[in-house]
Amino acid sequence: MMDVVIAGCGPTGAMLAAELRLHNVDVLVLDAGTEPAAAVRIVSLHIRSLELMAMRGLLDRLLERGRRRPAGAYFAAIDKPAPESLNSAYAYLLGIPQPAIVSLLEDHAASLGAEVRRGCAVTGFQQDDDGVTASLSDGGQVRTRYLVGCDGARSTVRKLLGVGFPGEASSSDTLMGELHAETPPSQIAATVAEIRRTDKRFSVGPAGPGVYRVIVPTTTTGGGHTLDDFRRELHTIAGTDFGVHSPRWLSRFGNATRLADRYRVGRVLLAGDAAHIHPPLGGQGLNLGVQDAVNVGWKLAAQVQGWAPAGLLDTYEAERRPVAADVLDNTRAQAELLAPGPGPHAVRRLLTELMDFDEVNNHLLEKITGIGIRYDFGAGPDLVGRRLADVALGQGNVYGLLHHGRGLLLDRTGNLSVSGWSDRVDLVADPATVVAGPGVLVRPDGYVAWVGDDQGELEGQLSRWFGTPT
Ligand SMILES: Cc1cc2nc3c(=O)[nH]c(=O)nc-3n(C[C@H](O)[C@H](O)[C@H](O)COP(=O)(O)OP(=O)(O)OC[C@H]3O[C@@H](n4cnc5c(N)ncnc54)[C@H](O)[C@@H]3O)c2cc1C
Fold first, then answer.
1. Does the beta carbon of 32 sit less than 6 angstroms from any atom of ligand 1?
2. CB–CB of 120/32 below 8 Å?
3. Which residues have C-beta within 8 Å of that of residue 222, sequence separation ≥ 6?
4. End-to-end CA distance of the chain, in Å?
């Protein structure tokens, strides 16, 4: 019997597989596609995801494949630079093709020992008290203790589970692709500038010699994305199709906004787009999925390894579902701000003025980048429930200590101990560590579980998150 089967090897499934392997959990990842997805869309990795990648030692490899950009100007594409006071060593945005992220995460998971089987979909499953029997598209079956649906927006696992996915259906689709164009660049730029004064969702920008990345809102939903569809929709909005031809790739996406009612039913869980979908405004979906994976990975590993305290696995839904609900809301708000018409334009101008106040700008940026998240761990100092920003140590940095996905106690007092939990939690005693507390207990996902100097209190929190002492 496998420990965990993951349906879907997109960014969420691949990240989750790697997280589970850090704890020696047997993992099989099944993906319906014979090859990774082909559409080379450039996605944004925001600060919290960059921090997570640094925590797992993956950031340098990602930086080689992407382009760093300033962190600001992502809320409804309102052109305001990020405030200088951002508290992160990774205060930028990385634009990177999604396939590059998936292949890096898949390689990482495989190098840690995960098995990835492509061209094999999960088509059904049944769960009982001891495990889940999943049926596969190749006619086989696999028995596993847990099944996680990371199988994207149309998730088979979610549907078979019978979990509701309420929200709004797509009301308008967008065509996106990379195509060659005959019209001279200066003429394209002038036409695009004119249209963008009224419709911010339209764009035709250079993507290589003679090639343009085209984004065109449509008035229909659920149609095709052929070259003819692009030409027709370009004509409708711009009065010309710019002579587009020879596409590199074409795609179509909608603006449906939905959130799964539950993230877990018994031994079956959902993560990533399988649990939440929204329009790609602010570039947040992949970030959300990767962060789901890092949140649930160590908890599921604890469950499988038998040291999970009661209720730990349920904290996954309790923590991550509200974060997704907030992202859905901010994309709804951005959609209103980007809509054509004098009303939305007036609200957009007003918000643009308000963003001159650093507090407003910071608040919106923290939403988009994920660094403003504070999980509800109960009463405590403000840092409890928030992510720990990376800080330098005498040697190296704090994130360097989190590569193996274990808990971490930073002790400036020299008097605290993790004895009884040292198989799950590392201890670094260093009076010079620059953290906001005498002792700081950090979960494997980089969120602060406790701040204080009392050993009794610490042991209560160690039990709460890491189970009984050995
Ligand atoms: C135009 C556009 C731009 C975007 N830009 C950004 C951005 O800048 N930043 C950002 O964070 N997000 C962005 N997103 C969103 C991002 O692409 C998604 O949120 C992300 O792909 C979700 O990852 P996932 O792993 O959850 O699901 P997916 O990437 O959809 O992966 C699901 C995988 O499951 C497989 N699968 C499906 N069914 C089965 C089955 N039954 N059994 C086994 N395998 C199965 C599929 O083959 C696929 O490989 C954008 C989206 C669009 C459309």
1. yes
2. yes
3. 170, 173, 254
4. 27
Distances (CA, A) of 274 to 151, 227, 233, 360, 458: 6, 29, 30, 32, 36
Q: What average pLDDT does the segment 448-454 reach?
A: 97
CA of 227 to the centre of ligand 1 (A): 23
Topology of domain 398-466, CATH? Glutaredoxin (3.40.30)
CA of 336 to the centre of ligand 1 (A): 24
Helices (H), ranges, 146-224: 156-161, 185-196
Q: For residue 4, what pLDDT is reported? A: 98
What pLDDT shows up at residue 38? 65
Are the CB atoms for 267 and 108 separated by under 8 Å? no
Q: What are phi and psi of 371, to 5 degrees?
A: -85, -5
| CATH numeric code, 2-167+258-369 | 3.50.50.60
Find the mean pLDDT for residues 388-396. 89
Instruction: Determine the distance separating the centroid of ligand 1 and the alpha carbon of 152, expressed in angstroms.
Output: 5
* CATH code that applies to domain 174-253: 3.30.70.2450
State if residue 150 touches ligand 1 by the CB under 6 angstroms criterion: yes
Tens-digit pLDDT profile for residues 169-222: 998 899 999 999 999 999 999 999 998 887 777 999 998 899 999 999 887 888
Domain boundaries, the chain: 2-167+258-369, 174-253, 398-466
pLDDT digits (tens, 9 = 90+) for 341-367: 899 999 999 999 999 999 999 999 999
Ligand 1 mean position to 280 CA, how many Å?
11
Mean pLDDT (the chain, rounded): 94
- Mutation to probe ligand 1, out of 43, 157, 270 (largest number of atoms < 8 A from CB): 43
Ligand 1 atom 30 nearest Cα: 152
- State whether the beta carbon of 461 lies less than 6 angstroms from ligand 1: no
Report which ligand 1 atom has the smallest distance to the Cα of 274.
Answer: 26
Query: pLDDT by residue (tens digit) across 94-127?
Result: 999 999 999 999 999 999 999 999 999 999 999 9
What pLDDT does 104 receive? Answer: 97
- For residue 7, the ligand 1 atom closest to its alpha carbon is 43
Nearest atom, ligand 1, residue 156 CA: 41
